[in-house]
Amino acid sequence: MTLDARSFGARGDGLTLNTQALQAAIDAAALQGAELQLPAGTYLTGALFLKSGMTLRLDGGATLLGSRELAHYPLLPTRVAGIEMRWPAALVNVYGEQDVGLVGEGCIDGDGQVFWDAYWRLRAAYEPRGLRWASDYDAQRPRLVQVFESARVRLGGGLLLRRSGFWTLHVCYSQDVAIDDLTIRNNDGARGPSTDGIDIDSSRRVSVRHADIAVNDDALVLKAGRDADGLRVARASEDIDIQDCVVREGAAGITFGSETSGGFRRVRVRGLQVQRGVPVGVLFKSAPTRGGRIEDIHLSDITLTDVPTVLRVTMNWNPGYSRALLPPAEAADAPRHWQVLATPVPPDLGHTEVSGVRIDGLRARGAHAAFEVDATPEAPLRGFRFNGLDIQARRGGHVHDVQAWRFTRSRLQLDAPIALGPGCELAGLDREHWVADPALKRRDVSAHSLAEQDLL
Q1: How far apart are CA 138 and CA 130, in angstroms?
Q2: Has residue 142 been placed in a domain?
Q3: What is the C-alpha to C-alpha distance for residues 447 and 159, in angstroms, rounded to an integer?
Q4: 133 band by pLDDT with thresholds 50, 70 and 90
Q5: Which family does it belong to (predicted)?
Q6: How many Å apart are CA 106 and CA 104, to the nearest integer?
Q7: What is the domain count for the chain?
Q8: Parallel, antiparallel or unpaired: strands 381-382 and 402-403
Q9: Would 416 be classed as within a structural domain?
Q10: For the domain that residue 439 is a member of, what is the CATH number?
Q11: What range defines the domain where residue 136 resides?
């Protein structure tokens, strides 16, 4: 059975606020187990909540256009950037539901410029107060699509998602989510801060196929909670399968972190193309207070074209954002989420352990550096396996704090060798590919993270 949203009063004139009419249509479709059709037109709306047992289909030429009024996105309990707090609803929400579809060849447009501008104003006010880390949480901006505590959800079928106010598609505390044939364009007209593409957050059995992504921060990213709050929740992102995706713009092709507290395991990424303009191909990022364990990660058939850094690992990513230190002058009036963010994590719980990473069949052309790897002596990166690498780069880059890294059938054409930190092992590489220097000083991680910081 198919219902037409116009029969419930929805008007696609781009001017009428359709929130009530569209929600009534959604509720009716759920009661009847029906598909709700949105015909061609531009439907201005605030937050919508899809319900169990129904599908929303956007026809070609149909656009859900997000309201610019923050009041049209009610505050709800959720997780944002690694902590649980109340936050504005997304434009389209699957919130505590199951057996839901969001498909079609239409468009969901967040019209996010007003929210981007508000963020930059708040951040400019916060940074002199030592509150850079709080600005992302206090500048409340609607995500475009949220799947939260839900199961058996399918999204795609040709959908275009664009101009999100914050993260574009956030899958959190959910399972059995299938994403297929999705285009994300967040840099149309301007470049919004933290406009991630697809964030898979403490969820399991999530598949992503045929996503074509251009954003201004992480494109495809795994997350699992931040610091003390993430360690409390302790939910991993696991059994994730990503295939045949293209990243045209973003902070990296595939990102793990920086919210790593619950850990990642059994992640497969295949057939990923990363194009010119993306600064990093494969990125692992965390912080000294994150903790978590990353294991059983398999990446294969990765193609990087004019991507400056092939593999970057940093365990001290963007300290101004990652380290939530509450200035004494702000402590008396600190809201609860500031206190949560600033809760200390014991050093032994703060180390992120990474092991069992395998990368097969990665080809890179036009790279500046093959490796920029900075872990810690307390938690070295163990047991990485590289097979069938074919990398051309100006520099080998540097590798610190790794153990038992092994290369097989790999071809590295480097104008300058890899600078290898004390005690590191790169088995299987010819001596011409690396140089050991006991006096090698650790690079300032914040310096080579500037490109990422600028994206926020």
Answers
A1: 14
A2: yes
A3: 38
A4: very high
A5: Belongs to the glycosyl hydrolase 28 family.
A6: 6
A7: 1
A8: parallel
A9: yes
A10: 2.160.20.10
A11: 68-90+104-327+354-455
Dist CA 442 CA 77 (whole Å): 41
Whether residue 336 is contained in a domain is answered as: no
Q: Could you tell me which of 163, 177, 167 has the C-alpha nearest to residue 108?
A: 163
CA–CA distance, 150 with 50 (Å, rounded to integer): 11
Which residues touch 157 (CB under 8 Å, ≥6 apart)?
57, 103, 104, 105, 180, 181
Give the span between the Cα atoms of 145 and 167, in whole angstroms. 8
CA distance 46 to 43: 10
Q: Give the contacts of 296 (CB within 8 A, at least 6 positions apart).
A: 265, 266, 267, 356
Q: Is this model's pTM higher than 0.90 or not?
A: yes
How far is the C-alpha of 435 from the C-alpha of 453, rounded, in Å?
30
- Percentage helix, strand, coil for the chain under 3-state DSSP, each rounded to 5: 20, 45, 35
Task: Evaluate whether residue 84 is within a structural domain.
Answer: yes
Of 79, 22, 98, the closest CA to residue 56 belongs to 22
E strands of 259-340, at which residues? 264-274, 280-285, 293-305, 309-314
pLDDT digits (tens, 9 = 90+) for 276-293: 989 999 999 999 999 999
| 453: confidence class by pLDDT, cuts 50, 70, 90 | very low
Cα–Cα distance between 36 and 53 in angstroms, integer? Answer: 11
CA distance linking residue 268 with residue 386, whole number of Å: 15
- Can you tell me the distance from the alpha carbon of 404 to that of 398, in angstroms, rounded to the nearest whole number? 16
